[in-house]
Design goal:
The protein is mainly alpha-helical and about 180 residues long. Helix content is about 65%, strand content about 5%. The protein is built from three helices and three strands. The chain has a three-stranded antiparallel sheet with strand order 1-2-3, with no helix packed on it. The longest helix is centred in the N-terminal third of the chain and has 44 residues. It is elongated and about 75 Å long. The relative contact order is 0.10.
Length: about 180
């Protein structure tokens, strides 16, 4: 009996590690792809031909709030005052914007860190939704031990995922804040 439980636990452990590896590979692939896709568009959008020039020679604070408190993709970048697109310095009242700037390769890593932080916060929301789903499963199990155990497993796995997502988002915020 003990040997059977040990084999069962090793099988569960191996399948969980396999799932964790798949999730890690998918998450890193998506964040890398997003960084590769966003970087050329960002460089084009911030080029002098599009109005984002350092006309005043000063830095400005970027607004880092977005929908539901998620960080923006440029959360860790510095900004420069620039003329709004279509404006010229000779206008009587030129409109200025605070444009995020990319000064080097290290700034691309800061963008990637912000994207990873966004994905981790989304993972946290998914984990909360899974806790709710597990609770509904538990309530609707109607005392059946097998379904109640499955619901408890869902809740426990979701809480583990939530803790991992919160800790990882905190680490990413701390590290990216130090490089900023």
């Amino acid at each position: 009996m003990i040997f059977g439980l040990t084999g069962l636990f090793s099988h569960i452990k191996a399948s969980m590690l396999s799932k964790i590896k798949k999730i890690f590979i998918i998450t890193t692939s998506i964040s890398s792809l997003m960084a590769l896709v966003a970087a050329p568009a960002l460089v084009y959008a911030l080029s002098p031909a599009n109005g984002a020039t350092d006309t005043l020679g000063g830095t400005c604070p970027l607004t880092n709030t977005s929908f539901l408190g998620f960080p923006t993709w440029y959360a860790y970048l510095h900004g420069l005052y620039a003329l709004a697109p279509g404006m010229s310095p000779t206008d009587t009242h030129p409109s200025l914007i605070c444009a995020p700037t990319i000064a080097g390769l290290s700034d691309i890593w800061l963008i990637a860190a912000a994207i990873v932080e966004i994905l981790l916060r989304v993972a946290g929301l998914v984990a909360v939704a899974m806790v709710i789903y597990g609770g509904v499963q538990y309530i609707t199990s109607q005392g059946e031990p097998e379904q109640a155990k499955k619901a408890q497993g869902t809740i426990i796995n979701a809480l583990i995922g939530l803790v991992i997502a919160v800790v990882a988002a905190t680490i990413v915020t701390f590290i990216a804040g130090r490089f900023n």
